[in-house]
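Hey team,

Sharing the DNA-binding protein HU-beta run so nobody has to redo it. Sequence (94 residues) first:
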Amino acid sequence: MNKAELVTAISKRADVPSATVDAVLAGLQEELVEAITRGEKVAVSGLLTVERTQRSARTGRNPQTGESIDIPAANTVKVTAGSNLKKAASNVPV
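Structure output:
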């Protein structure tokens, strides 16, 4: 499902105009980016948690040459599924 399909589905489910849903998703995106920039953790109970984490510097290998390379420390984003998403995934047959 892409963003346009998500906007349409939420619009139908909530019975609100697509433009409103699109504006809300844009606001959510902006707020998540700002919160991550500030180093804050964002938790939407039952749905997901988004937080900034730090990855330590390490030594890796170039798979083509086998040569060792230094990989610098970096900040990254961790998204964790909430209980409702985990439950939905576990109810789908493998």
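Strands lie at 42-44, 48-55, 58-61, 68-71, 74-81.

Ping me if you want the raw files.
A.
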